[in-house]
Specification:
The protein is of the alpha/beta class. The chain is 37% helix and 25% strand. Bound molecules: adenosine-5'-diphosphate (ADP) and magnesium ion. Keywords: ATP-binding, Nucleotide-binding, Transport.
Length: 241
């Protein structure tokens, strides 16, 4: 579904955030990315939907080269939902409005249809009674669950998560991971940057270790955690588990 070829990103000032990433993410696959801070995880994720423009290399989405000149980027971005560490909800809009805005504006879908879908999604994450509340009235865990269903309201083909639980109080992490686990069970294609190793073990089809802007090691979760090959990954895992 997504293939990156020699993906490189150099930020102004000469910092090499991505040093040639070659990856293939299959339809329905759950890929978890771990690695130290500053290793390029966010840059990689943001490159996949061209929030960062790569300096070099290619990104193919369903065969289309997103780095090509004639690509309708807005259309492609709509096919990928993104959830950030800080929920990025619009503070002055109700939850329902937060969810229905983009499907109505960008996808030109009728209000009734979108609202119906939004309510079904809210039901699924147990927040239907909060449809008319404002983000400030919700807990962090609730806001993040809303951010996830807001992305789902666009019917994306891929979901990208950048440390979705890192800003949450510990007691709220579980409720967000539960929603993500359910999505995985429904075979959503997912790329998840996280420090939640339990989630990685349980849900990932493949775990990637990034350091210095490259994928240094990748494997199925059991092999990844039980038999890390490089000393670098062994050291990293010993520090976080
Ligand atoms: P991670 O998500 O793994 O912590 P990032 O992808 O955020 O790492 O960052 C990789 C490197 O790129 C870091 O050294 C970071 O400081 C740098 N970087 C990220 N975004 C920018 C930017 N907009 N401008 C300049 N440097 C950046
Ligand atoms: Mg990051």
């Amino acid at each position: 579904m997504i293939r990156t070829e020699n993906l490189k990103k150099v930020f102004p000032g000469g910092l090499h955030a991505l040093n040639g990433v070659n990856q293939e993410i299959r339809k329905g696959e759950v890929v978890v990315i771990v690695g130290p801070s500053g290793s390029g995880k966010s840059t990689f994720l943001r490159s996949l939907n061209l929030l960062e423009v790569p300096t070099e290399g290619h990104i193919y989405f369903d065969g289309t080269d997103l780095t090509g000149k004639k690509v309708d980027l807005d259309k492609h971005r709509q096919r990928m939902g993104m959830v950030f560490q800080h929920f990025n909800l619009f503070p002055h809009m109700t939850i329902l409005k937060n969810m229905t805005l983009a499907p109505m504006k960008l996808q030109k879908r009728p209000k009734e249809e979108v609202e119906k879908q939004a309510m079904e999604l809210l039901q699924r994450v147990g927040l239907a009674d909060r449809a008319n509340a404002y983000p400030s009235q919700l807990s962090g865990g609730q806001k993040q669950r809303i951010a996830i269903v807001r992305a789902l309201c666009m019917n994306p083909e891929v979901m990208l998560f950048d440390e979705p639980t890192s800003a949450l109080d510990p007691e709220m992490v579980g409720e967000v991971l539960t929603v993500m686990k359910e999505l995985a069970k429904e075979h959503m294609t997912m790329v998840v940057v996280t420090h939640e190793m339990g989630f990685a073990r349980e849900v990932a089809d493949r775990v990637l270790f990034m350091a210095d802007g490259q994928v240094q090691e990748e494997n199925d979760p059991e092999t990844f955690f039980e038999h890390p090959k490089s000393e670098r990954l062994q050291t990293f895992l010993s520090k976080i588990i």
